[in-house]
Specification:
The structure holds two protein chains of two kinds. Chain A is mainly alpha-helical. Chain A is built from ten helices and three strands; from the N terminus they run H-H-H-E-E-H-H-H-H-E-H-H-H. The longest helix of chain A is centred in the C-terminal third of the chain and has 29 residues. Chain A is elongated, with a radius of gyration of 22 Å. The relative contact order of chain A is 0.14. By secondary structure, chain B is an alpha+beta fold. Chain B has two domains: 197 residues, Alpha-Beta Plaits (2-Layer Sandwich), CATH 3.30.70.20; 31 residues, no CATH class. In chain B, the strands form five sheets. A three-stranded mixed β-sheet of chain B has the order 10-1-11. The chains are: A mainly alpha, B alpha+beta. At the A-B interface, helix 3, helix 7, strand 3 and helix 8 of A face strand 3, strand 4, strand 5, helix 2 and strand 8 of B. Strand 3 of chain A pairs antiparallel with strand 4 of chain B, so a sheet runs across the interface.
């Protein structure tokens, strides 16, 4: 497939936003059950969530560049019963609104206690809204990934690993950002976030590598014989039905040189996984904000390459009708 | 339930592209708007087409067959492009099974084109909406046209009658008979899309001639040349008038 940068930015940016919110809410939840020290509600959970909202909004803006008719985008909420894209279009704004409410509860300080599960576990409004938003965050990961995983003949995508990878990569980058954010506000839970950023990055490395290995062993169900219905081992194409190319020759081929295509895989493996783990480890040892920030930035740049490769690697069966590009 | 479709006979298609130009002419002049072209008279012409003819060479010289392969939307009975559409712009008509795009609802997200294994959909670069074969829906029901012309433009244009149009769910229709009698098949059956359009394969007409059909057993010369009289028990074609 031809990687569209609008979709690359959409999926990576909202992944960071979701991951950052999940990190912040995990911090709040752990502070309630006294595992972690509580943070300042307004400056940490509040402004941290607004930072997540910035990433989500940037992703949403990027998505509009993908549309031929962005002014009709509202229509895309119609077919949520059948379309994962429609579901994403509903869940993303819902997640953004709830993230905003969560941020505002913390910033305004209006956070009434709702009920107590025990003497130590007191549920206030922010905790309840955050729980709802956590469900939305995971729902959004599923919706985004299922857009690709549900197309069964795009065999590189049609695997549960796609959902796992979108979730883990989003969470890894979000936790990396939360670590940098915690370092910026000089929080005392940097190590918690940094540790989990490394763990999530390692898990993501395992599952993304599993997907890469799986994709090298795909047996394609379609071939030129099934595509045109002629059983013969030697079929050569003489004409493609157009002289200067068509939508079919542009949309479904990445168009990159083979060497570039192959090198991107190694680029993203280094930038998404190896470098951030080294930088985060160094940063946790030295507590330098610059290193935390650099770890996130390098990982995000790597994720752009990762997503480019994700799209470029998918081999659409319609390409069988276009043997020479 | 009616399922209108095309049956394309690869045995008689000569690859003349008359269906392509006729399709483009009819549909670019239609109410749904033109089908844009870019650089039509320059180096790299490109544009929107509903129907394209490709050519394949099967086998190795000297045992080759040239197969011209017209390709347009197959109007699948289980169209994978329809459920993925977030707006409902891509839909399949209940009454005749035609898969259509509502150009006023389409947001141009291209997701349906990703979900079509055949690459039958093309985004119009000018109108920024997804376009595809409509089976000339604005023509086949037009009562202003004489009845024999209420067929898709490509079908009418084909000089060799390689394109047939009809209801593939009606067992008595011409298209159903052709599919049954001449080995009609679907493209990429492995994805369960159940394409309504069928293709008829290349076929050779062979007759089998046995040896005794080449040698005339009751040849009158046998008698005229006064050849030895055949044995009484030998078989002849006119067994009834034995010697």
């Amino acid at each position: 497939m031809h990687p569209a940068f609008s979709v690359i930015f959409l999926t990576t940016l909202i992944g960071v936003g979701q991951g950052l919110f999940l990190a912040l809410y995990t911090g709040q939840l752990y502070s309630v059950i006294k595992v972690l020290p509580a943070q300042d509600a307004s400056s940490f959970y509040g402004y941290g969530s607004l930072l997540a909202l910035v990433f989500l909004a940037a992703g949403l803006v990027a998505s509009f560049f993908h549309l031929g008719h962005p002014e009709r985008a509202w229509r895309s909420a119609a077919k949520w019963k059948t379309s994962w894209l429609s579901r994403e279009v509903i869940v993303l704004p819902a997640f953004m609104v709830t993230t905003f409410i969560y941020a505002m509860i913390h910033i305004s300080g209006w956070n009434p206690v709702l009920f107590a599960l025990s003497d130590d576990f007191i549920v206030d409004l922010s905790l309840l809204v955050g729980a709802l938003n956590t469900a939305l965050a995971f729902a959004l990961f599923i919706c985004t990934a299922m857009i690709y995983a549900c197309i069964k003949f795009l065999q590189e995508w049609a695997t549960p690993l796609t959902v796992v990878n979108y979730t883990l990569l989003g969470m890894a980058s979000g936790f990396a950002l939360s670590t940098a954010f915690a370092a910026y506000v000089e929080s005392d839970i940097i190590h918690f976030y940094g540790g989990w950023a490394i763990i999530l990055t390692v898990f993501a490395f395992i599952t993304r590598s599993a997907a890469l290995i799986r994709n090298t062993k795909i047996k394609y169900k379609s071939n030129l014989s099934t595509a045109i219905g002629i059983r013969h081992t030697k079929i050569t194409q003489k004409a493609q039905g157009s002289m200067g190319g068509s939508f079919n020759t542009r949309e479904y081929f990445h168009g990159a040189k083979p060497l570039f295509f192959k090198s991107i895989k190694w680029v993203f493996l280094v930038l998404v996984f190896a470098v951030p783990v080294v930088l985060l480890s160094g940063a946790l040892a030295s507590n330098m904000f610059v290193l935390f920030a650099l770890a996130f930035i390098v990982q995000y740049v790597g994720l752009i390459a990762e997503r480019w490769f994700f799209f470029a690697q998918a081999n659409h069966p319609q390409n069988l009708y276009y043997q020479t590009i | 339930m009616t399922q209108l479709a095309l049956v394309i006979d690869l045995n008689v298609c000569v690859g003349c592209h008359a269906c392509v130009t006729s399709c483009k002419e009819w549909n670019t002049s239609g109410t749904a708007g033109f089908m844009s072209d870019y650089n039509p008279y320059e180096k790299d012409p490109t544009g929107t087409f509903f129907n394209r003819v490709q050519t394949f060479e099967v086998g190795e010289y000297p045992n080759t067959q040239t197969v011209h392969f017209p390709k347009s939307c197959l109007h699948c009975e289980e169209p994978p492009c329809v459920p993925v559409c977030p707006t409902g712009a891509s839909y399949k008509r209940e009454e005749d099974g035609i898969v259509l795009v509502d150009y006023d609802k389409c947001i141009g997200c291209k997701y349906c084109s990703w979900a079509c294994p055949y690459g039958a959909r093309e985004l119009d670069e000018s109108q920024k909406v997804m376009k595809k074969c409509t089976l000339c829906v604005d023509r086949i029901y037009d009562e202003a046209l004489p009845e024999e012309e209420r067929k898709p433009a490509c079908v009418l244009a084909c000089p060799t009658s390689a394109r047939l149009f009809g209801d593939v769910n009606d067992p008595d229709s011409n298209v159903s008979e052709q599919i049954r009698d001449n080995g009609g098949y679907q493209l990429m059956p492995e994805w369960g899309t159940k394409p309504a359009n069928h293709y008829l394969p290349r076929r050779k007409t062979n007759i089998t001639i046995h040896h005794d059909e080449l040698k005339r057993v009751d040849n009158p010369l046998n008698k005229e040349r006064k050849l030895p009289m055949p044995d009484e028990n030998d078989q002849t074609l006119d067994d009834i008038s034995s010697w």
